[in-house]
Amino acid sequence: MTSAFTTLPLATPLLATLDELNYSATTPVQAQALPHVLAGKDVIVQARTGSGKTAAFALGLLQKLEVQRFRVQSLVLCPTRELADQVAEEIRTLGRGMHNIKVLTLCGGVPQRAQIISLEHGAHIIVGTPGRILDHLNNQRIDFSELTTLVLDEADRMLEMGFQDDLKAIIKTTPKNRQTLLFSATYPSQIEQLATGLLQQPETIVVADAPEQSSIQQAFYSLNGVPRDNAVKRLLQAYQPASCVVFCNTKRATQAMADSLRAQGYSALALHGDLEQKDRDQTLVQFNNRSARILVATDVAARGLDITDLDLVINSEIAHDTDTHVHRIGRTGRAGAEGLAVTLVAEGEQHGLSLIEDLLARQNQQYRIELKALPEQKLLTQEPLAAAMVTLQILGGKKHKLRPGDIVGALTKDNQVPFSEIGKIQVQAAWSYVAVSPEKERVALHVLNNNRLKGRSFRAFRVR
Length: 464
What we know:
single chain; alpha/beta; Rossmann fold; 16 helices; ATP-dependent RNA helicase DbpA; hydrolase
């Protein structure tokens, strides 16, 4: 079920921005949730990652925002910094036609000083993680007395990460007559208990919990005694994906898999909870800009991370539950694109396999999982595909007034680096990243280190 955004009671600037972004029709979650959100009702939404839920609440926040009242009017709580950054960016994008809106991101893993200064200048909308929000509250840096809307995004994930007490403490500081929107991929008993004490006469919306079979093809391979890292390498050589996420169930298995792949020349990076925030950020930058073909990750990467255009998902181990399996494979085949997800199955994992088969059977009564034989070992004699790009970091960013155009202009001056050899550019607060082809790495570094940007000199180096 979808409809045109023009049928909704949205302000003209919001409709104009949606038109500029070529957002004409709502997704199912937006079609079902937005009318209730815009009517000011409390809403519970159960929908998978990639369903368009962020716009479903972002448009509601922006529609009711009183720009002239410079107070915190909306709070969005997220489980991870990556999701908070993504949500804040989407709110800014959707609200760019409205003048002087300030969206502030408050998350752990970064120094507090810049956040404290930003808070002193005020904000309309705050997006952040529970721990850091509570820290600022305890130090009386935030006032939620005029808050009108509270959003819990990926609520199940926040509870899984142990944020329940932090959430309760934060919620106590907000007005009781606020609007509350709860978004969750799953609806376990913990979420039900949280919702009961939090929302008032909520509208409940459940959007299909599994990706459409037409967009994601699944395959299951029997390990038959083959080591998991060897099996993953065979699959990578057989499918030759431009980008692939390999899921593991533990941080130790994730790091071991990534180390094994890199030792054999694969362009692979690890993403798990033991990494420092800076390393997590750089890992995602490199993967998204094609400086690495393979991301080996724990399930933290299954939700909330801005991973796009993914060719292949490999479950090196069966997920602990079917909800997690659904979210893993949902990283591919997004926005209607074709996707492929493969799962490795060892002896003793029949129970988990049966649960997945039951899930698929509910979608297609004729469906039965057939275990395939792994691709042949001789594929490993071939050289792994190299990454298409390399990532350069510039020690200058938004606070230095740098923009993507400044970086492109410097690189392309006198055709030193052709525009076609430049990939994604990300400008952050204190530094920037630019992807270039491996052939132009040395030239690009020479240009960036020996020329001025915005009248200043900045150091640049390759991220490895």
